[in-house]
Structures are given as C-alpha cells and as structure tokens.
Amino acid sequence: MICFTLFMGWSVSGYSQGIKFFEGTFEEALAKAKQENKLVFVDFYAVWCGPCKQMAETVFTDEEVGKYMSDKFVCMQIDVEKAGWQKETAEKFNVTVLPTLIFFKVDETVVSRLAGARDKADFLNTAKVACGEQLSFTKLYDRAKSKKDLADMQLVLKQAPDYVGGLEGMEAQKWIVRIDKLYADYAKAKMGADFINKEDFQIVSKFNKKNVKDDAVMDFIAKNLETYMNKLGEAPGILLVEYNNNIIGQLAKAGKEEYKKYLERINGELEAAYAIMPTGVLTPYEKFKYYYDGMYLLSYKKDVNSYVELMNKYLAALGDKVGANDYGEIAQNMYVMTKGKLNNEQLGQVRDWLVKAMQYEGTGLIDRINFVTMLGDTYKALKQYDKAKEAYNQGYMEALQIENKMQSAQVQMIMKRKLQTLELAK
Length: 426
What we know:
Blueprint: E1 2-3, H1 26-36, E2 39-45, H2 50-58, H3 63-72, E3 73-79, H4 85-92, E4 97-98, E5 100-104, E6 110-115, H5 120-130, H6 137-147, H7 150-165, H8 169-190, H9 198-207, H10 216-223, H11 225-232, H12 235-253, H13 259-264, H14 271-274, H15 284-301, H16 304-318, H17 324-337, H18 344-358, H19 365-381, H20 385-399, H21 405-425
Parallel strand pairs: 1-4, 2-3
Antiparallel strand pairs: 2-5, 5-6
C-alpha cells in the first residue's frame, strides 16, 4: 500500500462545515443513494496516511465542497486496514494507493477514480465529471483525438494516470497504447517555446520513454536546458541525468561500446545537468565512467576480477569521501549482475564491501535494509549460516521501523521467508 507520514486518527464529522460522512456499511450507503437518487463517494484511507489527513483537513472541510457533495452524493469513508467489510471492500476495488477516492453508481459501477491526494479544484472537477456535468475522460479523449486541440490533449494527459490506473487487464493495456500515441502527437505538435512550462514538463516526466536513444523530447530539453532550469529549477536537469544514465546502462549491459558516446555527453551538452548531482571529489564524468565501465565488465565481459580491481581503484579515488552507498552499490551490482554466480573469494569481496557499507551512520533505512539483506544472501552463499541468520534478523528488526505499515509488513514477510529458506539450506 502506497501513501502519497504518521498521525493519530481523525474525524471529519467533527467539523461544522464540509462533507458529512455517512455512518454505515458500503451496502447501506448504496441503498441510501438509490433511495435519494444520488451517487456514492468513498474515501479509502488509513489512520497512518498523512495525505489522507491532508485531504480531510483542507478539502473535505471546505464549505463549497461540502454543499456540492451533500447534494449529489452519499459520502462515506472506509478504513482499508479495519478488519471485516471495510478491508474487504478496499480489496474488492483494488485499493493500493492512499487515499483512493472512488465515485460509484448505486450498482457499484465505478464512475471515476482518483489515486492520491487532490486539491479542491481537482476533486470537485472529478465529482462533476461523475455527475455528468463535465465531459468524462473518454469523451474528452475522443474530442481531443478528433480535433487535435492542444488544450484538450493536455487535459487528457493530465487526467490519464488516474483513469488508466483504475483499469485492469486488456482494457488498461488498450488505454496505455492510446495515451502513448496521444502523448507522442502532443509533444510533436507542442515542442517549442510554449512547451517549456511546469504542466508540460510534468507530462513529459510521466509519459516520455526513458530508454529510447536520441529521443526528440529529451534532445529538446537538453538544447533548452538553461531556459528550463531558469523556469523550473533543477528538475529538468535531474530528468536528463536519469535519461542519459539509463541509455548508458542499457548499452553497457548489452556490450555495445556505443555507451561511451553517451558517457562523453556528461562533459559536453549535459554538463550543466550533471553539475547538479553531488559526486564528491570526483567529477561527474569520472564517477560515472567508473560505474558504467564496471557494468560493461560485469554484464558483457563477465570479467568479475577486472570489475573488482576497477572498483577498488574507484574507492581509492574517493578517499575519505567514500560513503555507505558507494560500497553498497558496487556490491549490489556485482551480486545482481552475476546472478550470485561467484566463487568464494568473489563472494568474500561482496561481503567485505557490504560490511563496510553497514558501518556508516546516517544511511537511509531502506538502503540499510537492502544492504543487510544482501549481506545475509552473501553469507548464505558462503554457507556461513549463523551469520546469514543474524543478518536476516537484523533486516527484520530494521523493517519494524518503517513508518508505512503495509510496506513494513511486506519487508517483514520477506525476511521471514529468507529465514525459513535458510533453515532448509542448513
């Protein structure tokens, strides 16, 4: 379960204005809506979800929102973690993001669906679409497709993640293809000075392919990076770094020396973008050259010993600026890219790097869990079962500190399974 922060439970009904939520079951809400000729609105939430509380305090309490929703809907809240009909209803409608806001007909047909917190305007717009007072997503798409109106196309692309996110199977795949085509047409038509704005950049960030060489939109951003960063800050530069690194990595793994061409862009047209990234005592080019040359050695050349030699040179070059993630990343690459097919000496090197990674304070919790889990896997491969058990137990204890309860439970389950498998391996 994803939540787009911890706090005590709240009650919207305690406010004098805003939405008055129905107290009863989902089935009772449907029956009441049928009797009153209304739709049903459900706020799926959890008591630990910060964005859920944000909507409860800033949107659901708004007088205009309360009046409209009371006139048109029977409104209710469902705690996705409360055993019984509430949890069952959340599972029935595949609620995996919090808050999830769903507008139903009385026969349980989903009319509209939003994943994640929304501001007042966005929320009311979706409610009005559900009531037929504004164009539905599908009708807006049809109009945008036929008229090629850029404003309509932009609106469709902004709404697409919520609409498509509520679909499943072939229906979802069909719409993914449609939206990808609409985005390509939109970007081609809009690319120019008017394309450099916050809304269009957000659309690019969501829909543009990040693994296609010489992509026209990414090239446009690169050529206009100064303007982009003046208007939007560092985000366009970060997107370019992510894109270029994906291409370099893709080519290096495939054994294509063409990766070096894209590596050289770091010192060329993408220099300003990479300057954003903190790389310590090394230049961005030096840091990523070590990284991707190592990837080439591992994935294509299958030369583990040369990789170890290169990475030790990399660590030496970092000197006293080396950190937990430096050790952790090179260990992870070595283990994952070889699929764990390492001899004991090589496994010992992975172990040593991970042990050093675990010695640093201030490492992020998820990173620590990843490192200690891999350390357990490495000890298991070395048949050092007691140390593997110790590492997995540490991972389990670290998982208890994860604020997101669903994520915490998932990681705990992974650790339990690893401990069970370890017992069988002994």
